[in-house]
Amino acid sequence: MDPISLFLLIVAGILVMGTLGEVIFVRTKVPDVLWLVLIGVLLGPVFHLVSRDFVWGLAPFFSALALVVIMFEGGLGLKLGELLSGAPRGFALAVLGVLFSVAAVVAVSEGLAFLGFLPGWSLPNSVLLGSIVGGTSSIIIMPLGKTAKLREEVANLLSIESAVNDTLCVVLVIAVIQFILEPGSGLDTVVKNIAAQFSVGGFLGIVAGLLWLWLLRFLQGTAYSYTLTFAVMMFLYVISNAVNGSAAITVLLFGVVLGNGAAISRALRFPEVIAFKQDARGFHEQLSFFIKTFFFVFIGLLMSLETGTFLIGLAVSAAVLLVRPLAVWLSAAGGKFSSQEKKLMTIAMPRGFAAAVLAVMPSTYGIPGSEQYTGIAFSVILITILVFTIGFRFFCAPGSGNGSAGKGPPGKKVLEESKPMERPPREAVHLEAGPEPREVEGIREQDY
């Protein structure tokens, strides 16, 4: 078969499996990520139909695009009030989760080094490994709340945690590398860098979102408003990185502003009430599905099947899983979370592309022992995805375990029955595509 036909056949097969994976997820509550990662493993490490070096060449570009698409979609789905109320817990879970994970990985790595399984490994190497695999994957977690119909408080907490994690881990990895190369660097530098990235990224996302919300009034009636919005997202990603901000937070908050456009435009007394059109949301969801499908296959393509490295990754994953319940318990203290929801938050710890990209950085800087990071990190990614997949199926399936699965606080459910979505009142948010503008509470309402 000629290369072009093979390429088209593989792409078509991946899209079909992605669609079937969504159907299987709805029926069995087994996340589609499992099947897509396995397809990647078969195409790459097993049958060598796709070159790993070729995939690595595309990885930085694809991961940036995936981050933009997924974070924006996550922001669109976050209601402003729930975001503000859930931010403290989400941030606490992110910080505690990363710190506990780093500590656990350091303990296991030092033990393995003492036993001779990681020759030449030192304490800074262990801290660096913990920073690489310390955070959950926003690209896996963000779509979870919508697809699985989790209770909004739980979905928002996990989404905020995963968004914060990306930035925390990037800053930590850079700080540890800097410490290894220049031992004089202190903890105060790390804290300042984290605060600066969140502040700059958040400010840029909110300001850009408000400005774009105002400008969209002049794009009414055009067919390319979403195309321009997508271009603005990519501009924001580049600008945020250029000014040392968190690109993930920037795009997330840009999406939050547009997703809550009706409420914000009313509060700011815009001439028209601007709401993100339903057809634009639908197009973005299709694009997000395409990106997510190939992202998970990418993860599988980059896996290493070396036995020794996999066993080390297994030990590291076990350590991360053991400390996760403590982070969840502390961050959820005082909240109205059922025991089943806490178990679900405990296993919602899959590592993803951020860990894969960060694992390559030590070799770029010539850090001793850097050849170990990639293999261990990819093993941890695969194992944590498997744990998440199995645990999600168990804790979300009605009637599983102790019979409380699917139950949240009294009167609420973690996993709701599938039913037609109730349309919000037209006075609150106008989402239909193409109607004539009309008067709402004395204000002219207009989609873009």
From TrEMBL:
Pfam families according to UniProt: Na_H_Exchanger
One term under GO cellular component: plasma membrane
Membrane topology term: Multi-pass membrane protein
Transmembrane stretches, start-end: 6-26, 33-50, 56-78, 90-115, 127-145, 157-181, 193-216, 223-240, 246-268, 289-305, 311-332, 344-367, 373-395
GO biological process per UniProt: proton transmembrane transport
Disordered: annotated segments: 402-448
Cation/H+ exchanger transmembrane domain: residues covered: 17-395
Endpoints of the signal sequence: none
Keywords annotated in UniProt: Antiport, Cell membrane, Ion transport, Membrane, Transmembrane, Transmembrane helix, Transport
Compartments, record wording: Cell membrane
InterPro entries in the record: Cation/H_exchanger_TM (IPR006153), Na+/solute_symporter_sf (IPR038770)
Biased segments, Basic and acidic residues type: 413-448
Any one Gene Ontology molecular-function term assigned to this protein's record: antiporter activity
Protein name in UniProt: Cation:proton antiporter
Organism, as annotated: Candidatus Iainarchaeum sp
